[in-house]
Design a protein that fits this description.
Blueprint: E1 4-6, E2 21-24, E3 28-30, H1 32-41, E4 44-47, H2 65-83, H3 89-104
Parallel strand pairs: 1-3, 2-4
Helix pairs in contact: 2-3
Amino acid sequence: MKKKLVSSDNIGEFLAVDTKEIHVDTTMILTSSAKDYLRSKGVKVIYGSKTAATSRPVISRACSKKDNLKTVVTRIVSILRNDLQVRDSAKVERVTQKVLSSLQGR
């Protein structure tokens, strides 16, 4: 089973907006920098499996469009690089732009 490395660089992918806790299961490795970040933000680390209610981040309507856009872009890049193993930066940028333009058309 492949484990996910959670660092201060990608911690946002695993946190819901305005949350005060994160569930860390057996498929995740939390780095020291991620723990430091969580501690500085007052986020409680809960070890064990996630429940269905907490498995997906919830985007607050109070967030600005800029924050939402940054979250979407970060998630798209993460999926391309980590899940689909796309290494070509130009391709990642093209796909990200196409997804964003598709979302803006809604």
